[in-house]
């Protein structure tokens, strides 16, 4: 500093003292400056006051010499004290040089700058609020200062500024929010602590509505919630808790839509606390905002669904996620199925390409710009429900489809996905059937899941697809387009309808009175059998379970009718035989098919006779099952005729095993009526002959002994004569089961034809050297 320079009105002694390295001398100079400025105030000499502040700022506070800078800082503070309430007129000139010193490399100088600004702010009080933005910016830097003394000084200044803000009614929140939004992303712990403390203070001020600006700082708050410091995490938890309380009290003023995606992101956080907190917020948002959240359903499901499979270590997150999932599902209503005015109704189910590319922003419904009178939460939710909200069904289905394709997801998540699909097919069937073609392959694949519960839910969805009136289409002709590759799953219209009118099937066509479900039912049956054919392990382990459940969910007669229809054209004869055996076992043993068995037992109606004929033609793929079907329907003469044909068949170990199983079935409660009919020898001679025929087929085995003992119990007809004469009998309610409506000669010819095909195929395979795994018994 040039000693010859004129610093008037500051005296040379004041200038020397301000440049001194000793604090005490600088303090004496500050007292002299205070006295000088008071005189200028008394004289109303504004020019002189500005001149003194300018000298202290330019020549001292911003000097290159550290001691001069210290002198300038204490001098500026002295000016502010002297000015008193009039300091507000000179605040810009007083504050700017002090804030510049906040960036000084010398920690002592930063401390003095903090001390000087404290004195300036203490005097000016509310007058500093127009300069709050620059003050806050400077303080946020000092909050992260490495020097403990500087940090301690900044905390004093911080508390003073907070007191001023809470006392004032003129705080400019609008201009402050951008700075808060910028600083909230700091990674420094002390800066984060500083930011959170200010948010808590502003939230506590009744006249400051920070909730309006919550969307701008919510993401940053969740970032801070993941801080390593427990103290900061706790502070952030408190701040978020206060905001959530305010949201519950005043939902009408909350911008739910603007914060939805922020919550979606943090609901997927790896930090448990962040994820749990965000999930709790999401739960409240869904329950408070209602259908306003529907446009964000796909994102919400992306975040929520994986949490449903969490183990007990994340039990809290799992429970909250489950509530979110259930609450969101309830928001989907039948009105969401209204056909879009811009889309023409289709005549065949298909995926509406391009739907998934629609921008979510076009569907967003926000509460911004809408004013709601104070009201209860219930009335508020009802008010929101009246807002026109578009369900982003394409996005939801895409998310559900992706989760089903992900083999790593847990069982509970897969169940939740299937529940969602079922719910959507119930509430919005017409729109959902646009996606059926794309969903069907993965739904069919899910039948191979390890969990029975997943399979049950999957079957519920498939059953709804197959039975929903919305799935009915106009035509059932073959679709245009190239044929599918081998092994490719398909869902298309069959070449013929389910009514089979083949040459030589007089009296045996499928019953037209059978309920046809919808146009997807037959397709489902086709592709289910294709699945069983390509994945034999599925048929072996879960085939019976799947079919039995479908019989509960759908019409059992329809299922057997359609499967028999399809198997009639099956080219893989070995699979056809296996599948028929499976269906026959289910038919004879499952409690779910009690009504269908009773229907077939008497063949009193045209429908039951047609069903028998349809089943019979497919059952011919397996000789023993064909006989068992005749036993079930009490066609004993035809059963005897069939067994007579067995002498022309290739008798294998597998064949004898099936005969063995049939004998075991005859001893079961299913065939109680058949065993009782053995008492009526005269009216059931072909039943006894058929059973003797089975006995003659069996080698000396347990089954042979079992059936032999049973036949030994058949009474001598002469011993059954009573006083009423030879016409009395202990017969079943049906004495003649041969009905003119069925051409049994043609059925027998069909049986011979099918078995001839089977024999031809086995010989062809044997000639190719294939292992038939069907050992012939000599």
TrEMBL record:
Keyword Signal among UniProt keywords: no
Entries under Pfam families matching the protein: Vac14_Fab1_bd (PF12755), Vac14_Fig4_bd (PF11916)
Record GO biological process: phosphatidylinositol biosynthetic process
Region (Disordered): 338-370
Cellular localisation: Endosome membrane; Microsome membrane
Domain Vacuolar protein 14 C-terminal Fig4-binding as annotated: residue spans: 536-714
SUPFAM superfamilies, alphabetized: ARM repeat
Family label: Belongs to the VAC14 family.
Assembly mode: Forms pentamers. Component of the PI(3,5)P2 regulatory complex/PAS complex, at least composed of PIKFYVE, FIG4 and VAC14. VAC14 nucleates the assembly of the complex and serves as a scaffold by pentamerizing into a star-shaped structure, which can bind a single copy each of PIKFYVE and FIG4 and coordinates their activities. Interacts with NOS1.
Function noted in UniProt: Scaffold protein component of the PI(3,5)P2 regulatory complex which regulates both the synthesis and turnover of phosphatidylinositol 3,5-bisphosphate (PtdIns(3,5)P2). Pentamerizes into a star-shaped structure and nucleates the assembly of the complex. The pentamer binds a single copy each of PIKFYVE and FIG4 and coordinates both PIKfyve kinase activity and FIG4 phosphatase activity, being required to maintain normal levels of phosphatidylinositol 3-phosphate (PtdIns(3)P) and phosphatidylinositol 5-phosphate (PtdIns(5)P).
Protein name (Swiss-Prot/TrEMBL): Protein VAC14 homolog
Lineage: Eukaryota, Metazoa, Chordata, Craniata, Vertebrata
Gene for this chain: VAC14
